[in-house]
């Protein structure tokens, strides 16, 4: 029963940080995990998994890869789940160890500034990966990127999309050393999306786009560190966009010209 | 206790359709409801509401507007709630009666084609309203727009943003009569976002943008009715964007030139 205890324990952030392990729940997430380069330490399954052909295939794939699989009762399985609709499978894998300096040298970075909602963070990672952003940096106040709800919302994208948590100080040092401009998303920022030659020339450089909490916006420290504030013109009476929607619009508008 | 029974009943779609009433839960939604033109029929509150100054203000605002407020026990209140973190207030209001012909003549419409997730639908309505879309049309297979979870995710935007449910047949008739082009979001569609003079001329017309279910995409009927399919170029290995993020990017890229 050691693996069951471990899975239960990994619901807590501290346990994930101490062990360097995380849990991916559900068929889709485990499929993506098997497709990635991450190291699997084991898996838990229960009868719920046998109800679909896709579930059976995941079972076989885990066995084929030599992953240690513990079959438990549905009741025990549910005690280790952090998500709403359990599908009878979860895998334990190693959090990839990344530092700012080990991030790939890419043209676009996404920066999460104090974003607490795990569903939003997962959707942000999925959006960044889909739009060709090379890496995502989580600043203090952001939910742990290896939280089970984040992993589920990111539908496996973070297994290949590089992410790192950093202090603001270390991150601004990195930006300076790498000559990366920090752009902040702000309701009052300059509208993006113009594809004039001048705008294209500016966007040709390396950019890190910072997005903040939906209610509070960017933290004062990040706002102060920004080279530019950009925004999305909104209709009268509309207060705000969902943070993942706003990031999607800005990242698409700021995409490198190909 | 009649209002408590009514609120409980309105959790079901059929009860909402029969009565023409819906429930808005939480402080933010009720605040937005009070700000809108919609007709309130009553409200339920419990002690949970008195824990914040904002809650107390909502109480006072309901009383000031002459809304019938029933104070119930927390246990009773919870039996009428459909959302996760109840804040001790819900209001019952009339669903605005709208038909296709009563929609405002605007330059952009959003069309929901079989979108079942209420959180996504609420975020889609919020996104449409924020980006200046004039109205949203829900085609068959889409979750009821007055579901409590949709209302919560839309953070009150749908109280002023016109919405209507329609059959595909009635909607395509409307598009033809109004000379509105139907554009469909599709992974294989032409990339949007170019602001060349030609693209601007095309986008100067009236456009209804249809988005489909994340997994299945547009239904065959809607796909067949589209004048154009548009898409968002994605990075290799990325399967899809969240539907609200995709709609946000497309609606922003297709925004009327001002």
Radius of gyration of chain A: 20 Å
Distance between the ends of chain A? 53 Å
| Sheet of most strands of chain A | 6 strands, parallel
The number of helical runs of chain A is: 11
Oligomer: homodimer
Pair with the most extensive interface? Answer: A-B, 31 and 31 residues
Beta content of chain A: 15-25%
Task: Kindly describe this structure.
Two copies of one chain form a homodimer. The first copy, chain A, is α/β, with parallel strands linked by helices. Helix content of chain A is 37%, strand content 21%. Chain A contains eleven helices and ten strands. Chain A has helices at 2-9, 13-19, 27-35, 53-64, 74-79, 118-130, 148-153, 168-178, 197-203, 220-225, 243-253, and strands at residues 21-25, 40-45, 69-71, 89-94, 108-113, 135-139, 163-165, 181-191, 207-212, 228-231. In chain A, the strands form two sheets. In chain A, strands 7-6-5-9-8-10 form a six-stranded parallel β-sheet. In chain A, strands 1-4-2-3 form a four-stranded mixed β-sheet, with helices on both faces. In chain A, helix 9 links the parallel strand 8 (181-191) and strand 9 (207-212).
């Amino acid at each position: 029963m050691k693996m069951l205890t471990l899975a239960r324990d990994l619901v807590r952030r501290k346990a994930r940080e101490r062990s360097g392990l995380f849990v991916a729940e559900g068929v889709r997430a485990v499929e993506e995990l098997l497709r990635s380069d991450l190291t699997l330490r084991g898996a838990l399954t229960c009868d719920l998994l046998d109800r679909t052909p896709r579930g059976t295939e995941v079972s076989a794939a885990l066995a084929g890869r030599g992953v240690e699989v513990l079959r438990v009762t549905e009741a025990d399985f549910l005690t280790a789940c952090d998500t709403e609709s359990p599908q009878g499978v979860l895998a334990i894998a190693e959090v990839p160890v990344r530092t700012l300096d080990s991030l790939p040298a890419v043209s676009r970075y996404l920066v999460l500034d104090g974003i607490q909602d795990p569903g939003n963070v997962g959707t942000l990672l999925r959006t960044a990966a889909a739009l060709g952003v090379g890496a995502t940096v989580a600043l203090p106040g952001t939910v742990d990127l290896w939280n089970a709800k984040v992993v589920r919302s990111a539908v496996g994208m973070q297994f290949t999309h590089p992410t790192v948590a950093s202090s603001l100080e270390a991150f601004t040092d990195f930006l300076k050393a790498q000559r990366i401009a920090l752009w902040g998303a702000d309701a009052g920022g300059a509208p993006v999306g113009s594809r004039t030659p001048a705008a294209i020339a500016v966007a040709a450089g390396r950019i890190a786009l910072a997005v903040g909490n939906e209610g509070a916006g960017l933290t004062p420290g990040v706002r102060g560190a920004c080279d530019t504030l950009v925004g999305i013109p909104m209709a009268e009476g509309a207060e705000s966009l969902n943070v993942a929607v706003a990031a999607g619009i800005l990242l698409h508008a700021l995409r490198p010209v190909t």
